[in-house]
Amino acid sequence: MGLGHSDLLVRGAFNEHFSGEAILGFHTEDKTLERHLENAWVQTRSLPFGLQLRAGRFASQIGYLNELHPHTDDFTDRPLLYRGFLGGHWYDDGLRLNWTAPTSFYLRFGVESFAGKKLVPEATADSRSRVTTFNIKTGTDIGKSSSWQWGLSHVNNQREAMVEAHEAADDDHSQSHSHSHAAMFSGKRLWISDLVWKWAPDGNNRNQQLRLNWEYAQVSRINRYADASMRHSSSSMGAVWKFNPAWEVGARTDWLRVNKPEEHEGEIEFGKGRLKENAIMIAYKPTHMQTLRLQFTQQRASGANDEGEAVFANPARRSIQLQYVIGFGAHGAHAY
C-alpha cells in the first residue's frame, strides 16, 4: 500500500489573453516520497480564426486518453497501448498550435513539437532531440441522446531508443504503475485511431450513461536493426455503464503485440511477444469529487526471444486493485 499518485494543481486566467496551469505530482516509490513537475504551461485565449497556442510542459493530445488526467480514467490503470507506447501518460516540454474549424460539428486540427526526452529518455548518440505530432478530432451529436468523437493521431519520433543488453533486460514490462512516463516500445512512426460513443437519456447523464471507446495503435520503423515489415501494435476496447447516479460498472479488453530488440553478444535480436489483458470494475461515486473503485485484472503473455526466454517478464496474471480517488477545491468540467 502506498501513495499511488497525488497532485497539487493551480489553474486560472492571467488576463483576457492568457491562461495557465501547473501540476506538481507526488507518489511513493520504494517507500520514498518522490515529486515531479507534470504540467507548467501558458495558453492563449484571444487569438483570431479559431487558433490557440500553448507553450511549456503538458500532456500530448494524441489518442483519446493521453491528454486527460489519470484521475478521470474509468479503470485503475490505462490500456496496454498507453503503457507500452506512451509510458502511460506522456507529457513533455514543447509547443502546440490548434485550429478549431467554424463548422456546425466539432472539427479540430492540432500540431505539437516536443523535446522528446520524456518519451525516449535514453536515445542513440545520433538521434535528434525532437518529437512532432499531428492530430485530428471530429464529432457531433446523434439526436438528443447520443454523441460520438473520432480522432486520428500521428507521431514522428526522431529519438531512437538505445537497445538494452540482454543481461539488463529483466524489467517487468507488464507493470502498470510506473511513473517514468517513458515508452517501453518505441519507433519512428506511431499512428493512433480512437473512437468514442456516449449515450444518456435525452443527453442527461446524471442518472444513466453508456460509454463505449475503442483505440488502435501501430508503431513502425522500430530502429535501424529492424526489418521494414516489423511492427508494434495494440488495441483496446472498453465499455462503462452508469446505472445509478453513484454506481458504474465496466469491462475492458486489450492486446499488445511487439518485437522487442535486445543485444546478445554484440548482435541485435528481436523477440516476438503478445500480451492480452482483460479487466472488470465496479465504482462507487458518492460525489463528483470521490471515486472508490474495485477492479479485477487478468493478463496472459506469450512469445519468446531466440534463446527461448519470455519477452514479457512476470506478467501479473491475476490481480485485484482497490482504488480511492478524491479531489479538493474547485474542479473544472471533464473533457468529452
Quick one: overall form? globular
Give, in order, the helices and strands: EEEEHEEEEEEEEEEE
Q: What is the percent of helical residues? A: under 10%
Q: Could you tell me the strand content as a percent range?
A: over 45%
> What radius of gyration results from the CA coordinates?
20 Å
Average predicted confidence as pLDDT = 88
SS class: mainly beta
- Tell me the distance between the termini: 32 Å
Number of strands: 15
Main pleated-sheet profile: 15 strands, antiparallel
State the low-pLDDT regions, or none.
167-179
Spatial strand order of the main sheet:
1-2-3-4-5-6-7-8-9-10-11-12-13-14-15
Tally of contiguous helical segments: 1
